[in-house]
Design brief:
With about 170 residues, the protein is an alpha+beta fold. The strands form three sheets. A five-stranded mixed sheet has the order 7-6-5-10-11. It is globular.
Length: about 170
């Protein structure tokens, strides 16, 4: 698996992402993550719904905190056929604590800390930091990627409106 040097930056410094870049039209890879109760969760278990996968470096950072709160707030208008997953390298216990403190209830946090299976499969594992790059993907109910945004500077937020337009397009 080749690294993609300079694919993202942190405060202007280039970083390397492990794995291949995913593109619109690709089949979404499966990966096993850990739920907040330490149970394994397969991404493929959400087939049949429109899936928004938000990857963040850590919930305990200001930009990630803001981003996840934004997606949680916007999730209220998306309906039952849309699931938002937030994936980070944070421990499941830390994710659960953060969600409780932030009143985040409309999305699911999953941890990739154990095997970095998601980061590797989605090409989002930052080699230098063993954290995930900031990215958003929308996967249609058949498992095909319909939108991808890799945020070039990981201290910046994604384009929420573009993501939600992609979600709307998946719903018909």
């Amino acid at each position: 698996m080749a690294g993609r040097s300079g694919a993202v930056t942190f405060q202007g410094a280039p970083l390397t992402l492990a794995g291949d870049e995913l593109k619109v039209g690709d089949k979404a890879p499966d990966a096993v993550l850990l739920g907040n109760d330490l149970t394994p969760v397969n991404i493929s278990s959400y087939l049949g719904k429109t899936l928004v996968i938000v990857s963040v470096p850590s919930l305990d950072t200001p930009v990630c905190d803001l981003e996840v709160r934004q997606f949680n707030e916007r999730a209220a208008s998306l309906g039952e056929d849309v699931v938002i997953l937030t994936v980070s390298m944070d421990l499941p216990f830390a994710q659960k604590r953060w969600c409780g403190a932030a009143n985040v209830e409309r999305l699911i946090t999953l941890s990739d800390h154990k095997d970095a299976a998601f980061g590797s499969a989605y090409g989002l594992l930052i080699e230098e930091l063993r954290l995930l790059a900031r990215a958003v993907s929308v996967v249609d109910p058949t498992g095909v990627i319909r939108y991808v945004e890799l945020v070039k500077e990981i201290t910046h937020e994604p384009d929420y409106d573009a993501c939600l337009q992609a979600v709307a397009a998946c719903q018909g």
